Fold each of these.
Amino acid sequence: MTSIPKQNSIFKVIGASSLGTLIEWYDFYIFGSLASIIGAQLFPADAGASALINTLAIFAAGFIVRPFGALVFGRLGDLIGRKYTFLLTLVLMGGSTFLIGLIPSYSSIGYAAPILVLILRLIQGLALGGEYGGAATYVAEHAPKGRRGFFTSWIQTTATLGLFLSLGIIVLAKNLIGASAFADWGWRIPFLLSILLVGVSIYIRLKMHESPMFAKLKTEGKISKNPLKESFSKKANFKMVLLALFGATMGQGVIWYTGQFYAQSFIENTCKVDFNDSRYILLWAIAFATPFFVVFGSWSDRVGRKWIMLGGMLLGIVFYRPIYQVFLDKTDLSQLQPTAIKDVAQPVITKTALHTAGDTLVNTSTKITLLNGSTFNKLQVDTVYANSNKPIGHAKEIMKDKTLTSGTFWLFVALVFFQVILVTMVYGPIAAFLVELFPTQIRYTSMSLPYHVGNGVFGGLVPFIATLIASFAGATPLSGLWYPIGIATLSFIIGAVYLANQTDENIND
């Protein structure tokens, strides 16, 4: 019979599991962090706002297939073991990410470019669907009772740290090679670098041993013959799957993606803040907030998981709209007075040929410096047609690439930090919460599905649905927030009524 490893080996387990999971999240989130730049590469030059929406749709597609990955790889994990299953997911994720970095642009292969990226994005989603459940289960099954919230919370940091790593490498690459080169070809660097990270993680994971609980079941011949059937055809288990989804992971998902991804997307694309500033804001906020995953995970061992997670949802429901209104107010240049302007640089004009021979897209960008030290670019877009009988199309002026004063920058950091604190509240305890709901022989399958439907589908669609809602006629920039607020409210109500305030003393081992 396999014995449970000594206490001090748990940190080796956490390290090996967390590194691979961090790299998978890094691979998965590079795409979202570069959505505006990738959109310009995958779609025609005159696609305008639809390029961003279409790119966010491709980004969202990876989330939609995550539940299918959870079913496929969850079943494998409950049949053949945790170790080899999430080793396979790592290989699939790393290979897909590397290939995205090699896909030619729209100008070279037309609409084959977004189609190929979509296919690889779907493979990424399937792989991630199998990764998280395996890593969380693996760590939980090594952890001693009474400490599962603490130890699994280290796995919970990897999603945010993967985002942090992706943002850091993106900013570093852009600053090293310059903005124009990065927008042209340098955006591929973070994708291509991932193959090195994956290679290191594969080497480490090959040295890992199987989970002691799963090894014990295998030795005793008690492995589930059909984990899918046991998870979803037995009434008691299926009830727990539904409760986990609608009472916890659904609300957790929208809080996670609003507080990090939508925050960065809103600051960059709606408030038109400079590329670097928008990412530095998130980097600082994540750096300050990440330790709280472990704080709330550990706290949940003592006071239970329920009210910590629901508290994070409730605070998001109450404070999202006021926070995002501050983002808008502090970047509003519509009432700018000429007396506030210190300097106006010489305009930079770029011309791009469109599909119809002779038609040209003309961008006139003028950098303006204000007396308070902040800057922005005034962009005027004109379409000059070859046919003189057609009028010259003129788009409204756009104020973009806004740099912030020091005070405003740190205010934004504080507001995003608060949102990431909410993320740590809902996400820190949830791995232990899910593990505790299901017995060992079907745990990988049972916990993976509600997690990836709630986090992947409801949460992962936040940037796309919120941006789409805000683009509707009559909508305001804050209209998109009704989606995460509505989902979090529903999950809060269901969780408050039906969830037990559990600790791991009642875990189904």
Amino acid sequence: MKKLASIIFAFLLIISCSEDNDDTVTQVNTTFNFTHKWDGTSVSNTNFNTIQYTNENGEQLSITKLRYLISKITFQKSNGEKIILDGYNLVDVTNDSNLSFTPTSPIPSGNYSHVYFTFGFDNDDNYNNNYQDLNSTSWSVPAMLGGGYHFMQLEGKFIDNTATETGYAYHAIRAVDISKTPKEFQDTFFEVDLGAASIEKDTTFNIEMNIAEWFKNPNTWNLNALNNALMPNFNAQVMMFENGQHVFSLKSVTP
């Protein structure tokens, strides 16, 4: 009888321990905050419409519009397993909206070897203009350029080489060469790797965009030569993609 009681006690103890271990796996929410600077100087829409910045090429310029798309926030474990969250966010600095994004899906707490997000849409998402909220904000790309969506709209004015205030429209899309039949495309979305993170509770990632980097690394941008009609300019789009690799940085992770 004592032996039977010991077996039952041990069985109940195993079940109890198993339930306790399950309880330690918690679901947490993540938030991504986006701030903006020009080589160390904070930028918000209150700084727009005034020529006050100087790019790497020595041109003085203003910002009148800045908005960009992020998508496919991904958490990767050390074994390679990935958790890819649905949803996207149109960061709109112009209207001071969507500067903070909390995906609707939580993730399991734990250690992650990489946290990523995609700048723009990858080809699976950038298809058929199916997102009505983006369609209503003039975010679509014309069909003659392949359709889909913008990745970024950065606009303003600069002092050109005739000392005239001239507008620029630095719009990033999927690169397309419309001079070829059929059209030639090159992917220009890119992943931003925020590095490793240990997440035990609701966590915020504070991310900074250095706007000046769009104009300087590795391609020094000459606004006198490249200021408008950049969407159908295949080479310009590739240059934007290259410069974008250095634009975002993770400033802090806070619980």
Amino acid sequence: MKKNQHRYGLYVEIAKDKNELRYMITDNGIPVQDACLWLDLISINSYLTGERYAYILLRYFRFLRANRMNYREVVNKRVVEEYIKDLLGIGEKIINIEGQLTFTALSTHITVLKAFYHWLEDEQKVSTNPVLLGSKRVKQVPLVNTKLLYGQIWQFDIEETILSRVTYRRKRNHLKWYSEKEISAIRDELPTLRDEIIFAISVETGMRIGEILGLKLDHFDPFEQTLVIVKQTNIENRAQAKTNERTLHIYQSLSEMIQAYISTDRQTADLFYSKYLFLNSQGPHKGQPLRSRNFLRILKNAGYRAGLKKEELRTHSGRSTRAQQLVELMREKPELGITKTFIEEELGWKSVKSIKTYEKGYSSRQKRKILERIYPIILEGKNHSLEEGEN
């Protein structure tokens, strides 16, 4: 069977132009106009979102093609249920069976369909006329009587369908933040100075992995000992800053490590006079900027050697560790002058709500510490009472 026959001729293709990146869905090499225009729109703020949505929409288009349907021709909610069953890999069996996706992942697929059909409706490429009022959608009389899935998709609630009896795959448990012992153990197992620096930047500044791998040489100032986070479209490794642009002051020890890397390992790896700070040091991609999935693999292997579970490790844990550390210091050591505003600016948060998660974590840890302090006192009181009883 030919490749195009197996995939129904539908593929995600990438178009690059200087520092611009576009994701397209093509049908036998011809762009699907509606899909491409929509992907351009949702990629404005993040082409990583565009990439993720493109592959989700491609999966839906291939399902429809396999069933000889077009996205504009779907007429009822049953098509969505059949698509979900296909995603779960459960065929006609929907009772007490474990699917292949988590509930969250499944919801994401539905969310993408909702957004796509919402856009089609707004562009009058399909016609029904629900109007968005706050979080509610109120249906009005359709402009044209054509077939449309949008209404059914928007109202589609997984919990209310027969698919609610499916046992979804358990959501992965990720390591939320590292202990000091875990940080030390992982650093000891990282294979190169480059990898140790990336990990150290993560836990010492709270930068996202996309922000770290998007760093250029001129974003590092060894004299001021700072790193500058700049929002740029880095098509070479698709690293992207999602938070606010900012300048972060780093410890002298980290600054010295970066300087050592630039003058040694990086100099050897820099085959193409790259502007990126972190480069691949070996293999067919030597000299090209490091990608996040490559560092995740390195991190997981180092964590495994350090005694942690690979499936629990993620690049975001370093950022979470820094946030939790700052919140705890703010509460326990007010003399340091750490404020909520300082934490928000340090981590580039756009909303004050972001800190609440870490404040809850702080409260939980404090409760545990209080219990640990109370227990010896209570135990001592019980022993004292027993001694008095014996006397």
